[in-house]
User: Fold these one by one.
Assistant:
Number 1:
Amino acid sequence: MSTAGFSIARQIKLVLDKMEAAALRRPESLQYAKPRLVAVSKTKSVDMIIEAYDAGQRHFGENYVVELYDKASDFELQDRCRDIRWHFIGHLQRNKVSKLLDVPNLFVVETVDSIRLAKAINETWQRLNKIDPLNVMAQVNTSGEESKSGCAPEEVVQLVKYIKEECPRISLVGLMTIGSFDHDPSTGPNPDFQALFKARENVCKELDMRPQDLDLSMGMSNDFEHAIEMGSTSVRVGSTIFGSRSAPETSHEHKETELHASA
Ligand SMILES: *Cc1c(COP(=O)(O)O)cnc(C)c1O
């Protein structure tokens, strides 16, 4: 699949090197964890995922339930990627929960943004009789944009409390944000990343938890280094690893397309 000069293995190496360098620039208090790379493979083929897996990558992210289900159930992928860990990072509707929780090697659902959704996931996981609790993250809408999902920053503590107290079959492992796409890091810290960091502080204070026990999932292709400097422990990188996607999916990419068109 790779075109001349572009190799998924080389791109992964490049991203990991940049992540490591960014991690060293973090303040001492944030040096406790090596940030994790989640390779976002949406719209990309099973062959490309296997290629990344063979290069050592283990965590992969997808945002559509059916696409994830089909890829994760692929016979060749299951055979060759036995230790793959899938992150669901898309908007989740309650009527898709059953299908999502049937995904082989589902590692974490990063986009739990309401008590109702947490309840549905907990009940479904219980019905499936799984031994280990399912990992989830609470998604926070740090930018307040209506187009973004996630609970409001003021609601995070309540959501996390509900999960901890009422959902024994799911385990809260972190907080996640998408944030706005147009922040220029040269102008200062990204307010979305600051807001997620602050949300974790509040959760830890109110619910007596340790920050080290809660991942911060933030940062994508255009800002993962900045995100790591600001405390991200899990970055979601797609286009830098797999190449740009043909169907524009984010306002960021729409904007880029328009820029190119008018250039
Ligand atoms: C697509 C996507 C990413 C990766 O975006 P890139 O800019 O391609 O790195 C990360 N997070 C979410 C939630 C996404 O939908």
Note: The pocket of pyridoxal-5'-phosphate is lined by residues 40, 42, 63, 89, 178, 220-221, 236-240 (CB under 6 Å).
Number 2:
Amino acid sequence: MIPAVLPTYNRAPLSFVEGSGSWLTEAGGARYLDMTAGIAVNALGHAHPALVAALTEQAGKLWHVSNLYRIPAQEALAERLVAESFADTVFFTNSGTEAAELAIKMARKYWYDKGQPERVTILTFEGAFHGRSTGAISAAPSEKMVKGFGPLLPGFRQLPWADPAAIEAAMDETVAAVMIEPVQGEGGIRPLPEDQLKALRALCDRTGTLLILDEVQCGMGRTGRLFAHEWAGVTPDIMMVAKGIGGGFPLGAVLATEDAARGMVAGTHGSTYGGNPLACAVGLRVTEIVSDPGFLDAVRRKAGRLNQGLAALVDAHPDVFEGFRGMGLMLGLKCREGVAAGDVVAAGYGAQLLTVPAADNVVRLLPPLNITDEEIDEALARLDRAATSVAAPSG
Ligand SMILES: *Cc1c(COP(=O)(O)O)cnc(C)c1O
């Protein structure tokens, strides 16, 4: 019999009733150290007092009004994001997928309005993940995501990852935009080398192509800068954000330059919930905290500590791990052939540690950005126990 909850997830037999900082607690009292943070969503951990206050304060006043009216919290959050980024304007969504949808629409409308309606193709990359809508799976059509869901939408061309020559060769008169994650998340924590992001920006400039960055996972302080592209010193035309920006409240956004957004006039796009008062009250507080230079400094310092610890962990378990990679607090342990990332994650559960697998046989570490040094050390100790039990299965 089909479960009451549509069984599209292979769920771990864990269920949490409470969270505090980097810790999640089961009904029986067992505490787990959370190095997943809702897959980069709980940027400030669980039940952060400032976010609880922002949410409850707003909840007592006004949850929702339609985008038919002005929403002060939405305007404040948009202004803050504009002040902190390349963007001139922001549209709020409820998820990363919806942000991807708008980014695609915006890029096509741009060329339509410029009198070049043939420029519709969006170049995307192997290993990419942009969400689960028909548009998003057409943009990143891995077999697992698209099988049985055809027909897919036309107008996307997927290129090999980190292959500048392939992008150069694919640039023809139909290309509207390039859409890319500066650090692939689901694809296995694969950072695009800085020089390649710079070269891509230059290529887009030369051909007029719009550069869309998907920072749904790597944005909002995750890499130690507010946005991952800042490391390369280049800016996109359009950017998708979600996950961390709501700190656990469903919120996403598309940020764009005035030029890229020129076609999105009244009536061209909308969302019932997107950017409602409750979401934006929380999002504003998250953004204020995460964009603080001192906070980002601390993320980079903690990332250094975790990096050092992971280097030692890999050295201690060469039979389990091949290496690690990533940026800031977005890290992946690459497992040896013959060792399944899923088995390491499951062994982590045994050590009361939460991690998440990714493609390319990688174990992802996406802790809350405000994780403490002691918790980092504790996570490393638990990873060590997990790796030991994978290397020598007790059966
Ligand atoms: C999670 C994710 C998405 C999709 O976001 P949802 O909120 O699940 O719709 C899109 N792009 C990237 C890079 C992601 O990590």
Note: DSSP finds twelve helices and 17 strands in the chain.
Number 3:
Amino acid sequence: MNYISTRGAWSSPNAAQRFSDILLEGLAPDGGLAMPESIPQLSRAKLDALRDLTYPQLAFEIIRLFANDIPGGDLKALLARTYTRDVFGSAEITPLKTLESGLHILACSNGPTLAFKDIAMQFLGHLFEYVLGRSGGEINILGATSGDTGSSAEYAMRGKRGVRVFMLSPYGRMSPFQTAQMFSLDDANIFNIAIRGVFDDCQDIVKEVSSDIEFKRRMHIGAVNSINWARIVAQVVYYFKGYFAASASNDERVDYSIPSGNFGNIYAGHVARKMGLPIRRLILATNENDVLDEFFRTGNYRPRKSSETHQTSSPSMDISKASNFERYIFDMAGGDATHVAALWREIEHFGGFDISDDAMWDAVKASGVVSGSSTHQDRLDTIRHIHEKYGVTIDPHTADGVKVGLDHREQGVPLVCIETALPAKFEATVVEALGIKPERPAAYQGLEELPQTFKLMDADVDEVKRYIESHAG
Ligand SMILES: *Cc1c(COP(=O)(O)O)cnc(C)c1O
């Protein structure tokens, strides 16, 4: 499997990139994102053969299609080490919780940082160590987080040989639990940088540092943020797992609802659907930062400035420029990189683009994505409703997804809502909704009282570069 950039790089045969080549990269040299040349299609017979596999077996059958430059035996061993009951709390890894007939929650948040990002990130941790071990190389991971990516990356990479993590986060904007999870780590290879700004400022710094090719090469800068292709591939797996658990046979179709920020999670669902998994709809849920909802309703994509990004009670979705969206648009443009590059120039010059009169809009309609948004009050109401009716406590992000999912629910079609975090991670909003604290796993008692270390900085690219240079040994 070869990879190409959404803006055209790497398409000549002598520039061909394999999975391990793009694994440690952020953006492509032309500013685009890595995409597989084609999406593998699964036959009905193959789908039937996948239905009863364990999670690591299923992960192997899916990921090997995209990562066929890693020897099969090695990949299988890596996945068996990644997806264990020890790390994820159950052999199912992502168990399906049934609220009532046809209404489910896919529990994806039982990894070390209590958010779904661990599913992909734990795999990356093992994969990086494997790849660097083979090449004898090292990597300085530079990332931006609105809360969950950062902690997930740090817990996956702590103590990993050849790996350092420099993680930018918006100062004072993460939940106390998220902040404590990251800033209490004292591993020598983990560096927390708090930026005076919002998530998009952090993400812009990462993009700018990574576009300095000389610096990137010299400092071995790599990325694990949501544009990392290996993360998308690892997330494709639980769409299969959830589908098999929610249906009795591969003749059925199911709907998924997905709380969305950077469009990574839902994009993995889109890939699963393209591979032939019988997903009817992908229901995209945003909070008050509703850029993506606006696009799917109108065909008009208008990313907001960071000053127009609302701080909400589902902070991991406070994103107004969804990086993986470019991958989806590349698909909708039929893989026409010139068209994609032109649309992104339009964003640069005119602040957005409108495809409602374009043939691409028909492709969007056919892709099964529908959308909706929710408010703080909706989240409170949904947390309360689910707790009262089913005795289950959900976090505010999952509540965004459940709210919009229920709005789009159709009789006779199972609805699977992806749980993106445990409620313990976002205590304040859960207490506001229910008047009681959510249960917290024993290992996390007293987390906020641990000493915290971080470096506070303005949103200044050069200062970040200097910091990396002086700490990257
Ligand atoms: C990251 C995250 C999201 C958004 O996922 P994307 O892949 O960026 O769309 C939603 N909820 C939680 C809890 C998250 O950590």
Note: The chain has a mean pLDDT of 95.
Number 4:
Amino acid sequence: MPAHKIYLSPPHMTGLEERLVAEAFATNWISPVGPHVDAFEREFAAVVGAPHAAALSSGTAALHLALRLVGVQPGDNVFVSTLTFIASVSPIIYLGGTPVFIDSEPRSWNMDPTLLAAALDTHARAGKLPRAVVVVHLYGQSADLDPILATCERYGVAVVEDAAEALGATYHGRAPGTFGRVGIYSFNGNKIITSGGGGMLVSKDEELVAHARKLATQARDPAPHYQHSEIGYNYRLSNVLAAIGRGQLRVLGDRVAARRRNFAFYVDALGELAGLAFMPQAPWGLATRWLTCLTIDPAEFGADREEVRQALEAAGIEARPVWKPMHLQPALAHLDRFGGWVAEDLFGNGLCLPSGSSLAAPDLERVVDVIRRTPRRNRAAATALLAQ
Ligand SMILES: *Cc1c(COP(=O)(O)O)cnc(C)c1O
């Protein structure tokens, strides 16, 4: 019997979600309004320590609203991490803005604060400061927010945090996503907790969050008839999905612990091998290890990233290259950037291993076993042994 497929980061339900969804059915709140939506916002805000939160249909929708609410308009520049998922960037383009890409620093893989300062200086001199900086917290780890916030404050530029991958992480004890003017999170199926699709926008600014809720429900004015003074979107989270999200939120701590245990297992089993280097945990906080990522030096390890990934694939194990930088994307390659080599290197050699919180020990053993057997010298030794 072939072994079951091991996925990168599958959903992991507790059973509680079904009870809460049943409650939504029983009370007939099957729409983007309802008690679960309100409760999810309250409970989420409490968990991350944000004063206000709006539940939305996706992290991408949340970022779209965040950028609109900090005033991004056609023709504006918006700085954004180059090493990220496309959803950090597309909303800039929805609004007619122009993304400018900023490279990573090696110690966190996130936006390099020194390079950001240089980029802001260059743009200030040219009289084209960006409207906002989108700081991404990648793979469960916070960017170095203190210097980024200080620099942006000096230039009067709004900080929008894309914390879609970093729910449960900390930066000096607080949740990334709650430092900037607006922060966003995602509950897509592969994230650390999921609502089966959804997102959250948080801010200290109560009016901004209220405006986000209004824009997310077609921007209806408070009138009994349908009246609109501005154009909105259909971006509100459904009450049924909010029920799933509430159930998941209660086990966030367990999910973080499980992902960190996966990481520790991989480090323990593979850390001694020459040519493998795990994504570092920067000194400023806790990384959730949403995904366990490592880089592979092909000369030292004896196999490159693609050989390892393909060997895993052949064994029914899903692994993925680290995000392809935005400045290398065919749709975006014409845009300006500052640096890019750190991100290119991480993309060239970086691999994300199966990291789900429901992975069992035999699954992790299977992954480790395939990786150990991938270097050419090991394959040669195995072939020699067979030929004897
Ligand atoms: C998943 C993700 C998003 C988008 O979230 P969706 O809920 O899938 O729209 C945005 N940014 C990053 C970095 C992500 O990983």
Note: Residues 16-251 form a domain with the Aspartate Aminotransferase; domain 2 fold (CATH 3.40.640.10).
